[in-house]
Amino acid sequence: IRHETTEQVVQVLRQYRQVLEQYGITPGPSLRVVATSAVREAQNRMTFLDRVYIATGIDIEPIDDAEVSRITYMGLRPILARHRDLAKADVLAIEVGGGSTELLLIQEGLVTGAYSYRLGAFRLRETLEAFRAPRSQIRSIIQNQIQQTVEEIVANVPRRDRLQLVALGGDIRFAAHQLRPGWSSEGIARISVDELERLTNAILPLTEEQIARRYNLQFPQAETLGPALLTYLLLARQLGLSQIVVTNVNLRDGLLQELGTRGRDSEHFHRQVLRSVIDLGRKYRFDEPHARHVAALAEQLFDQLADEHHLGDRERRLLRYAALLHEIGQFIAQAGFHKHTQYLIENSDVFGLTQEAQRLVAIIARYHRRASPKPTHSAYIGLPREQRIVVSKLAALLRLADALDRSHAQRIRAIRCERDQRRLVVHAAGVDDVALEQLALREKGSLFEDVYGYKPVLYAAPNEPDAEGVG
After folding, report:
1. Which of 317, 316, 342 is nearest to 328 (CA)?
2. What is the pLDDT of residues 8-33, one digit of tens each?
3. Residue 157 CB contacts under 8 Å (≥ 6 apart), including other chains
4. Partner of 156 at 20 to 30 A CA spacing, among 6, 212, 321, 347?
């Protein structure tokens, strides 16, 4: 990040703070300032963040790709609801940013994929600077860079018969205003790919100074305009589309939606995350009935032992996701598959989970079998103490739940837990033979005893109704 850019940010935020003070607002929970990959991945990120904080007292929060996807979706939802053709279509929402390209695949209003690619306008500009290529070769160089990512994106689009490309970002909004001078930013603009190509062809040969003068843009905007528009254009061409839908939605809209709900995610959003988790399991051919059953048993344990673990709804969801994915590592190999599970979860795109949450899910799932957490396990030891405790508490519950379905036959549907001195007695309702599960519990119960101080034991309770049920 150039020094000049840093000072421009300082100037803008100083002015912004002055306006806030006029309204009697001081920085606090009601003020959220975020930055995306262009800041998050900058080599001088800490210098930039410290300079802004020292000069303005405002703490900028670099957010990860998953958070960007989540916030973007929150901003998009009202647009999709207002336009029925988009609500019923397969929507590919894309934003070419400074450091990355973010993509959401939405089918009938539900997110089916969230992807982030290390392709951004600033990255492309840095490539050109590294090559020091003459202007006549600029298009060829960046087009080769873009095309590789475009092919990756297209490979993630399962079908195209009802596809609509919805473009977000300042560069494509600029194009829409150029091509549709009367466009009201309150709605959407539809621009033809041919029109976008003519505009892109007119911009790419120009220097940044020429773009800034001709279109009355600030220099940073002029730097990113050509590469960003070429990315949108090449993607639309590769998908065989004739038009692009442009919306004024940006991170600000999603952040305002979030502030309006006081940061509480809706049940609809949690269903989206769950769907993404299950889609990941299906990608790696998990045993879905077993995974769902273990998740439901883990939730029963979580609920009945609430006064032991003192965890909340967020941790309950993390346990559910870890339970659903605990065996996906078998897709790679049976031996040591719990470690493969951790790797796959950590390195997959799961919509709605921050990098921190995804890391916790991965580590919880990893400890569903074999060794308990050890000082030699770098991923576990690298967590803050509070998170290590959460992992241990949830992994202990997951081990018990997995043991209760050792047969993979979903025999034990409902359980009742009671504490008897230093034992946790688990009653299996409606089941008269639990010999296999008792053996599994003896093998896997030590972590629970280490964490909670109770030795878990299992008894059949054939006369108790399995009213709880799972699914």
Report:
1. 342
2. 999 999 999 999 889 888 777 778 89
3. 90, 92, 105, 163, 239
4. 321
Domains of the chain, each with CATH number or no CATH: 3-62 (3.30.420.40), 65-260 (3.30.420.150), 267-461 (1.10.3210.10)
Amino acid at 427: H
pLDDT tens figures, 108-160: 888 888 888 888 887 887 777 777 767 778 888 889 989 999 999 998 887 77
Question: From CA 104, how far away is CA 450, in angstroms rounded?
Answer: 42
* DSSP line for 346-372: HTS--TT--HHHHHHHHHHHHTTSSSP
∠ CA 162-166-169, rounded to 5°: 170
Query: What is residue 75's predicted lDDT score, i.e. its pLDDT?
Result: 87
User: CB count, 10 Å around CB of 266?
Assistant: 12
In angstroms, the CA 206 to CA 160 distance is 34
Cα 282 to Cα 277: distance, rounded to the nearest angstrom? 9
Tell me the backbone φ, ψ of residue 75, rounded to 5 degrees.
-70, -30
Q: What is the DSSP letter of 156?
A: T
Helix (H) or strand (E) holding 428: strand 423-429
The answer to pTM > 0.90 is: no
Strands 423-429 and 455-461: parallel
Beta-strand relationship, 60-62 and 33-35: parallel
DSSP secondary structure code for residue 56 in this structure: H
Alpha-carbon span 202 to 214, nearest angstrom = 11
* Whole-number Å distance between alpha carbons of 424 and 404: 14
Does the pLDDT value for residue 5 go beyond 80? yes
- Which element (helix H / strand E) includes 170? helix 170-179
Reduced to 3 states, what is the DSSP secondary structure of residue 37?
Answer: helix
Taking the alpha carbons at both ends of the chain, their separation in whole angstroms is: 51
Residues 6+ positions from 34 with CB-CB distance below 8 Å: 60, 61, 62, 63, 251, 255
| Residue 416: pLDDT over 50 | yes
192: enclosing H helix or E strand: strand 188-192
Q: Please, is 265 exposed, middle or buried when counting C-beta atoms within 10 Å of its C-beta (0-12, 13-18, 19+)?
A: middle
Show the DSSP H helices in 347-453 as ranges: 355-366, 378-381, 385-403, 435-444, 446-452
Secondary structure (DSSP) of 108-121: TTEEEEEEEES--H
pLDDT in tens, 173-190: 999 999 999 888 678 999
Token duo for residue 292:
């769902």
Single-letter amino acid, residue 307: D
